[in-house]
């Protein structure tokens, strides 16, 4: 693929940067993950928001990329990236890839990230390094060809390589760019675990039926977090989960029966119904209530439409069914992957002449 001759400059932005928020608004719903993530209150002093246009700019270029990046969050998701090449019709190519300018913008972002210092992990997560070391003892083999069994330890193994970053909700075309640039790691989660990005227009959400008589609405409390964490292998701390908006369903003993969160990037996160309560439409009701309660006003396009979204692993029939029952449509393929930013630094094209 041909490349643009000069790499764009990468600039730091504040979360409320008017030109950044305008650019994200104009590209909704494609930019939905970044729109939510830049607005979320869960930000640390180590977070970087960068874009390939300056914060003092009056004009938004045709081709650009932007990124939210916070290494102190590891082993949770540390990075989200968006580029205009993700928009259907932005550039016509036989393989559905990016135009040279958009590809170069993505690579320039990663080149910039590669020179940033790696901050300390949050103290709440430090014990997970010991878990990663235990995994290394159990599975000492390494290399691009190695695949570890899917366990909590396999989610943490990358902590032993400081330059490896967990990237969330990444568009399939950007994953391809990273793969071709030699940045992509092959351990799970990776490019073999594709997700369908479901997009919802909040105003089109259907009405849902009332809860059964023995159940009532609430929000997830700190004392419920251990139960939430036990139902998933994805490592999220109590601190992170409690920073998210949540909707819960509780039985008459005030024990959680179902729950979900609005993730840091606005996605429907950790949607779960306990086995004895399944088949009653509760998951659909929880998801709809979450979007109706929290999504309005957050990711609103230039026509006034509010957008919500969910990433569902391909083949997860139950979750896909819930999304479709809410009027969700599949917009594109996304991935949770890991990249090694230590391999970046001079990826963006400079001059081919």
From TrEMBL:
Residues 247-337 form the GCN5-related N-acetyltransferase Rv2170-like domain. One of its GO terms (molecular function) is acyltransferase activity, transferring groups other than amino-acyl groups. It comes from the Eukaryota. InterPro entries: Acyl-CoA_N-acyltransferase, Acyl_CoA_acyltransferase, GCN5-like_dom. This is GCN5-related N-acetyltransferase Rv2170-like domain-containing protein.
């Amino acid at each position: 693929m041909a490349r643009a001759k000069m790499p764009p400059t990468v600039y730091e932005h504040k979360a409320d940067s008017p030109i950044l928020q305008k650019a994200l608004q104009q590209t909704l719903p494609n930019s939905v993950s970044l729109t939510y993530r830049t607005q979320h209150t869960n930000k640390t002093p180590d977070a970087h928001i960068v874009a390939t246009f300056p914060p003092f700019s009056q004009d938004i270029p045709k081709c650009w990329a932007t990124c939210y990046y916070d290494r102190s969050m590891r082993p949770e998701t540390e990075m989200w990236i968006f580029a205009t090449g993700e928009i259907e019709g932005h550039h016509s190519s036989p393989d559905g890839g990016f135009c040279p300018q958009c590809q170069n913008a993505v690579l320039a972002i990663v080149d910039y990230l590669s020179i940033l210092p790696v901050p300390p992990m949050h103290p709440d997560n430090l014990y997970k390094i010991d878990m990663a070391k235990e995994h290394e003892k159990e599975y000492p083999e390494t290399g691009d060809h190695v695949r570890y069994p899917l366990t909590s330890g396999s989610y943490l193994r990358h902590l032993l390589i400081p330059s490896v970053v967990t990237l969330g909700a990444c568009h399939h075309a950007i994953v391809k760019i990273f793969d071709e640039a030699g940045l992509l790691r092959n351990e799970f989660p990776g490019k073999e675990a594709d997700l369908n990005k479901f997009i919802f227009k909040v105003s089109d959400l259907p009405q849902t039926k009332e809860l059964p008589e023995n159940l009532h609405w609430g929000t997830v409390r700190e004392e419920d977090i251990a139960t939430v964490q036990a139902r998933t292998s994805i490592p999220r701390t109590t601190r992170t989960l409690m920073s998210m908006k949540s909707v819960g369903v509780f039985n008459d003993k005030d024990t959680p029966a179902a729950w979900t969160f609005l993730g840091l990037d606005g996605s429907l996160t950790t949607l779960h119904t306990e086995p004895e309560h399944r088949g009653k439409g509760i998951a659909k009701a929880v998801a709809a209530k979450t979007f109706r309660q929290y999504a309005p006003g957050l990711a609103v396009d230039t026509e006034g439409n509010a957008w919500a979204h969910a990433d569902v692993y391909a083949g997860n029939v139950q979750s896909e069914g819930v999304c479709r029952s809410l009027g969700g449509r599949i917009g594109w393929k996304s991935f949770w992957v890991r990249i090694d930013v230590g391999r970046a630094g001079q990826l963006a094209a400079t001059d081919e002449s």
